[in-house]
Amino acid sequence: MVTSDATSGATETADDLDRVAELLAGKRIAVLSGAGLSTDSGIPDYRGAGRVVRKPMTFQEFRADPAKRQRYWAGSHLGYRTFAAAAPNAGHHALAALERAGVVTGIVTQNVDGLHLRAGSRRVVEIHGSTDRALCLTCGQVFARADLATTLDTLNPWIDEPGSVVLQPDGDVEITDVERFVVPACSVCGGVLKPDVVFFGEFVPTEKFAESVSLVADADALLVVGSSLTVNSGVRLVDHAARRKHPVVIVNRGATRSDRRAAVKIDAGTTETLQELADRLVLR
Fold first, then answer.
1. Which residues are catalytic?
2. Could you read off the pLDDT tens digit of each residue along the chain, which spans 284 residues?
3. Sign of CA dihedral 97, 101, 106, 108
């Protein structure tokens, strides 16, 4: 495995990019993206350097406790305003350009922000769901999150976004005054509404994981960008690629759980690295 740490200088990073370009030249590349790709769009990650350890609400807590659902929806509603306003960064656009050029065959993303699609990528598997939808846990009806946000504003005219909102990676914010917050029920069956995202303690939908495996299997190489691969679904996709003898390239600040699987690991920011890599792969 070839590595480059953040202090080794631009020359070593450029050399590693050249090696990656040589390794991936002529190959059809599947991409696995994580939260580190969206930090340049103003969306924080869970595990970045200096970040306070945070215990997100689990699916079991959400489903079992109405008070916790009330707290979750109050914070999630405030955070959604900022989350939904985020724009794709140059890294997202570089991946979309690589797909248009026929280099990238598709993206499996652990992110729930929808930024790949907004950047123009077409084949995107949102393995952990998306914040732009909500669904009923009883009847399965899906609702547009923007419409639900309008309903929440109507039901809770007293609530306003705090002057300093601490946004979390899942679109949530920290908020304490939630006793008056009204959470709407499903308009079809009266059931419990939940954002269409995979909570901690919840399984990735079987069909989503199967689609992700198929995307990786159909490619010739796997490029991991902005993920520490802490979540098992990401590690399993890397393992699938490695078992097929597909070269794995990882671009991430800091160590990942699958560094030993990487043919090349670049310890650097995703935005600038993807821009440089796109230039090499498209112009080569």
1. 128
2. 544 444 444 556 788 999 999 999 999 999 999 999 999 999 877 544 444 455 678 999 999 999 999 989 988 887 787 778 899 999 999 999 999 999 999 999 999 999 999 999 999 999 999 999 999 999 999 999 999 999 999 998 877 655 434 555 555 556 656 788 899 999 999 999 999 999 988 999 999 999 999 999 999 999 999 999 999 999 999 999 999 999 999 999 999 999 999 999 999 999 999 999 999 998 65
3. negative
Phi, psi of 32 (to 5 degrees): -115, 120
Tokens representing 123 are: 């084949």
What burial class does residue 272 get, using C-beta atoms within 10 Å of its C-beta: 0-12 exposed, 13-18 middle, 19+ buried? Answer: middle
Give the whole-angstrom CA distance, residue 271 versus residue 66.
Answer: 40
CA distance 23 to 271: 20
SS3 56: coil
Q: Does domain 2-283 have CATH number 3.40.50.300?
A: no
Domain boundaries, the chain: 2-283
Among 249, 227, 19, 223, residue whose Cα is nearest residue 11: 19
